[in-house]
Amino acid sequence: MKLLILVFLNIQLFFIPSNVHAQRYQLFPFTYNNGLSSYNAQTICQDKHGYIWIGTQDGLNRFNGKDFVIFNKTTRPRLSGNDIRYVNYDKVNNCLWVCSSNGGVDAIDPDNDTIIFRLGIDTIKKYLTDPSVQKVELIQENILCLNTPSGLLFYDLKNKRIITGITQPFLKNDQPKKFVNGLFTDKNFLYTITIGEGISVYNTRTLKLLHEHLFDTEFAGSLIYRCWFDTLYHTIFICSSKGLYAYSPETNVINKIQLTKKQLPVYAICRKNDISMILATSEGVFETNNNFTNLNHLSFTNEEGIENWDINVNEIFIGIGNEIWYAARKGLMLQMPQISPFEKYSVDPHSNIKLNHLYYLMFLNKETVLACDLNKTYRINLTTGSIEPIKPFGFYYYFFEDSEKRKFISKEDGLFFTKQFEKPVLIAAGKICPELSHIEKYKFNSHLNLNDSIVVLAAEEDKGVFVWNTRAKTVNSLLKASNKFESKYCNGLAKVSSSRFLIVTDSELALYDVNKKTLKKVTIKNKENEEQRLFLDVAKINNEYWVDSYGSGIFILDTLFNQKAFISAPEGLSNNSVYKMIPDNCNNVWITTNYGLNRIDATSHKVKSYFINDGLHNNAFEEFSANSNGGTIIVGGPNGLTKIDPDKLYKHNAPNACLFEYIVMDDGTTNQQKIQLINKNSITIPNNIYKADINVISINYDLTSDLNYYYRIKELGNNWFFLGGKNTVSLLGVRPGTYHLQVKAANEDGVWSEPKELILIFLPKWYQTWWFYLLIALTIAGILYALYRYRINQIKKQHAIRKNIATDLHDDLGSTLNSVKVFTNLAISGVKQEESLQQVKDNLTEATMSLRDMIWVLDDSLDTVDELITRLKQFAIPVAAASSIEAIIKADSDVNSRQLTKEEKRNLFLICKEAINNSIKYSCASQIDVSITASGKKIQIVIADNGKGFNVDEVKKGYGLKNMQYRARQINYNISLVSSLGKGTKFQINPGR
User: Fold this and answer.
1) Based on the domain organization, do 761 and 775 belong to the same domain?
2) Bridge partners of residue 730, in order along the sequence
3) C-beta atoms surrounding 21 within 10 Å
4) What are 377-387's pLDDT values in tens digits?
C-alpha cells in the first residue's frame, strides 16, 4: 500500500501516443431495440446464478445472454420507482438492493422475483429533505445505511425503525450538503463522500463520526461522477470532471493521478485483474497497469449507429467470466475478454480520410495494403491504421508480378509496368514486353504464375484468357476463338499442375492443358440437377477443388473433377452468392458473400458466419476485394476493409449447466400461470393443465458462439431431442405421472454442458386417480359378482321349479297313475268293473290335465298374464260348466302383456286352480268371477263366487289353504280370504309389500 501511495505522489505525465493503433476488442451492444428498457444504462451487478442486472432510467433489467426481463412499477414484482440509480447483489442474504429516484429502497429475491423488503419514499422523506436514495450499504448484520443528496440515513432491519441522532458530516448552518454515490464499508469503517466538501469516516459498530478529510480548493469545485472502492489495494478512487483521484484510508490522504498532459475527465473505473484496471474517460476507454504508467487505448468493433458510446460510460463491471460490462448513456455494452480476430479499417483516426467502396486489395508487405476504390488507390498501414492516397489517381483494377518478378498494374486505361507499387511510375506494358502490345489496353482481374515461364492473365469485358510465355515472348488467347463456351468473361483461375489450370467464367468451368493445348469443359450441376452457370472463383483446397457460384453456393470437386459435396445456405452458408475463397494456415477457408463472411472447416465443411456485429466493416463485400499474406487475410467492400487474424480465433469454453428459469402452464383459457423454477428441482403440474412450456437457459456471454439446446425425458426414452437455438421445452398432452426432464447445451465447437434435471409431477384428473381406477375395478367386480349371484339364484329358482315339478309329478301324477293301476287291476279281475274303468278314465283325464299344466309352465313363450288368463279359461270354464256354474275370467287391458316368471306363472296358476276347484266343490254357487288387475309392477287376482259361503272363524283351515299360502309366499305374494254365510266367498291374491 505504501508503494502505491508513493506512486500516486510521484506519478509522471503520460502521453497517449498518436501513432499507435490500439488493440481491438469485440464489443456487443444492447439498446432499446434489443429489449433493454432504456438507452441510458446507469448501474450493473451480477448475481450468483450469473444473471446480469442493469438499472436504467426506465426500469431494472435482468439479462441472461439471450433475453431481457424488465422490472418496474407496472410489472411484477412492482418496484418503488422506475429510475434505477443503484443495484447491487448481496451474497450473504441472496438479495438485490435496488435504489430508485423518488422511489426508495427495494430488496428483491432473485430466485423468486419477489420483494422481500421495502423502505418507501414516504418514510424516508420524514427525515430528509431530498429522499432520493443513491446507494445503500449493509454495514452490520441488521443495519442498512442509505446515501441520499440530503445526507445519510440508518435503518434497523431487525427492529424495523429509523436510527436517529447520528452526526451528519459537513453540516454548516443546518445546510445539507450533496452526497454522491460514494458509500463504502471496509471492516469496521464506513466511508462517505460529499460533493464540495470531502470524505467522512464512521465506525460501523457505534455509528459515530470518526474524522473527516476536506477536499482542496481545486478538487472541491469538480463534478464527481462515480466513486469506486478497490479492495485489492484498499483505495477509494474518485472519478471527476477534473480527473482521477485516489484516497488512502490508512493515511487519510487524497492524491491526484495525472493520466495525460491535459486535464482528462474520468467517468468510471474498475479493476480488470490483479495487474490492470479499466478507465472510462472523455476520450474513450483505457486499460492501465496498477501505477497508471502505461495507458492503452482500447478500440472496439461495434455496430454502426452507436459510435462514441465509450465517452459516455456511467459504470464498468467485470463479470465472473472476465467479460467487461459498460453501462453507458447509449445502452449496455459487453466487451469480450479476447482480442477480436477482426479489425476494421474505415477511417484514418488522425487524418479522417474515409474509405468508401473498395474493389481490389493487395498486400505490399505484412503491414501495408493497397486498396482501390473508384477514384483513388490508398496505402493502409495495418498497424497504425493510417490511410493515405497514392498517385497517380484513378481506378486500379489489379496488381501482379510475373514469373520474373516484374510488376504490373491494370488500370482503367490499360496495363502498365512499374518498378514499385507504392509510388508507381507507369509505363505501357507493350514498351517493356512487346508481346503484350495487342492486349495492353485490356483490363485484367486475376493472374496465375503457372510455372517459371508461363503467366496466365484473365481479362474483363468478355476478352477471354491469355497464356503468356515470358521466355518465348508469346501470348496465346483462350476462349476467344472457341465456340464451345458461351462466355469469355473470366472471373478466376486455379493451378492444377505446372501445365494445367482451371478457368471459371460467367457460364463455364474449364480445364486447360498448356502442353497439349486442349480446353475441356467441366460440367457442374446444382441441387435441382440443372447445369450450373455464373462461376465467380475457383481454388484448390487440400486435395479438392472448390468452385463458388453466384446464387448456388460452393461446389466441391475431387481430383478427377467429379462433384462430391455442396455447401450452401442449408449447410449454414450466410448467402449463396459467393465471391472469393481465401484459405488460411489453420485449415479454414474464408468466404466472402453478398451478405456475410463465412469460415469453413476445410475437412468437416462446417460453416461459421460473421457479420458487422462481430467486428466486420460491413455485411457486404466486393467480388475481387480479398487477399492474403503470411496467414493474414483482408476482405473489403463498402465502408472499407477488415483484417482477419486467424491465430486470434479461440476455442469456446464449455457451456454452463442449464438453469430452469420458469414454467408457463396453460389450462386452455386466457389465464396462464408462470412459476419461477430457479433453485427448484421439482414442480407439480395441476391436472387442469394441458400444455406446459419450460424455459431453460445456459447463461453464456460469449456471444461469438451460438448455443444449441437438447432435451430428453428419461421415462420416454434415451434419445436427445434437438431444440436448436430455441430454449423452451413444450410439453403437450402428457399423461399423469412423474417424469425426469433433462436438458443440456452445446456450443458451436460441439462441447456439451453437464445435463440438468427437473422432476415434473403431472397430477391426474379425478378419473385418472388410483382410487378412481380402484373404484371402477370394485364396481366391475361387484357387477360381475351380482351377475354371478343372479345367475346362481336363477339356477336355484330353476332348480326349485324342476324340484317342484318333480314333486308334483311324483305326488300328483304318480299317485294318479298308481290309482289307474289299481283300478285297472280291479277292472281286469271283474270287481266293480264298470266303476273301476270310469275311475281309470277320470284319473287319466286328471293326469293329462296336470301334465299339460306342467308343459305350459315350462314354455318360455307363454310367460305373460294373457297366457295365464287363457290357461285359466281352458281349465275353469269346462269344469265349472260340468257343475252348471258360469265361470267368468277377465283382466284389465294394461296387464295382459306383463311378463311373469316361471315360478310366478306356476304358483299363481296352481293357487287359482285350487281356489276355483274349492268353489266348484263346496260353494254351491252359480257363478265364479276371476278378475286380474294391476298392483304396482305386479298383479292382483280376485276369485269370488256367489255361493252359500261360510263362517271363516268356525271352519278349520285345511291342508289345501296352507299349501296355497305356501305357494304365495314363494313368489312374494299373500292370500286373504273373505266369506260369510249366504254371501259367498272372496279369495284374494295380493303382491307382498
Assistant:
1) no
2) 693
3) 17
4) 999 999 888 99
Q: Is the pLDDT of residue 498 over 90?
A: yes
Residues 251 and 128 in one domain: yes
Domain CATH code at residue 205: 2.130.10.10
Residues 777 and 761 in one domain: no
DSSP class of residue 215 equals P
C-alpha torsion angle, residues 527, 529, 531, 534 (rounded to 10): -20
CATH number at residue 669: 2.60.40.10
Q: Is residue 498 included in any domain, yes or no?
A: no
Determine the Cα angle at 393 with ends 390 and 395, to 5°: 110
Instruction: Compute the half-sphere exposure of residue 595: CA atoms within 13 Å on the CB side of its CA.
Output: 8
Residue 141, C-alpha cell as written in the block: 448484520
Q: State the total domains in the chain.
A: 4
- d(Cα 74, Cα 503) in Å, to the nearest integer? 66
E-state strands within 681-802: 682-685, 691-697, 708-713, 721-724, 728-732, 737-746, 756-762
Task: Tell me if 759 is assigned to some domain.
Answer: yes
Give yes or no for a contact between 766 and 776, defined as CB atoms under 8 angstroms apart.
no
Q: Which residue has the higher pLDDT, 344 or 853?
A: 344
> Is 3 in a helix, a strand, or coil?
helix
The angle subtended at Cα 665 by Cα 659 and Cα 671, nearest 5°, is 135
Three-state secondary-structure class, residue 801: helix
pLDDT given at position 12: 35
> Which helix (DSSP H) or strand (DSSP E) does residue 389 occupy?
strand 387-390
The pLDDT of residue 300 is above 80: no
Secondary structure of 468-519 in HEC code, one letter for each residue: EECCCCEEEEECCCCCCCCCCCEEEEEECCCCEEEEEECCCEEEEECCCCEE
Q: How many residues are there in the chain?
A: 993
Residue 384 lies in a domain: no
Cβ neighbours of residue 780 closer than 8 Å, sequence gap 6 or more: none
CA distance 508 to 20: 48
Q: From CA 505, how far away is CA 493, in angstroms rounded?
A: 9
Whether 100 and 160 map to the same domain: the answer is yes
CA dihedral of 54, 60, 64, 68, whole degrees rounded to 10: -120
The strand pairing partners of 30, in sequence order, are 332
Angle between helices 959-970 and 902-922 (to 10 degrees): 160
User: What is the C-alpha to C-alpha distance for residues 842 and 337, in angstroms, rounded to an integer?
Assistant: 127
Last residue within a domain, chosen from 825, 858, 891:
858
Helices (H) and strands (E) in the chain, counts: 10, 71
- For residue 663, give its domain range: 659-765
122: its cell numbers:
414516504
Share of the chain above pLDDT 90, in %: 54
Give the separation between CA 474 and CA 470, rounded to whole angstroms.
7
pLDDT digits (tens, 9 = 90+) for 385-407: 899 998 887 788 899 999 899 99
- CA-nearest of 371, 364, 419 to 397 is 371
Q: How far apart are CA 152 and CA 599, in angstroms?
A: 57
* Residue 298: predicted pLDDT: 81
Residue 18, pLDDT above cutoff 50: no
The answer to whether residue 481 scores a pLDDT higher than 60 is no
Q: Does residue 688 sit in the same domain as residue 827?
A: no
What is the band of 822 on the pLDDT scale with cuts at 50, 70, 90? low
540 with 495: CB under 8 angstroms?
yes
Domain of 989, CATH number, reads 3.30.565.10
What's the pLDDT score for residue 448? 95
Judge whether 304 lies within some domain.
no
| Mean pLDDT score of the chain | 87
- Do 673 and 791 belong to one domain? no
Whether residue 12 is found in the same domain as residue 123: yes
Q: Cα separation of 214 and 192, whole Å? A: 12
Q: Are residues 213 and 105 in the same domain?
A: yes
Contact yes or no for 746/705 (Cβ under 8 A): no
Query: pLDDT class for 811, splitting at 50, 70, 90?
Result: low
Q: State mean pLDDT over 671-687.
A: 92
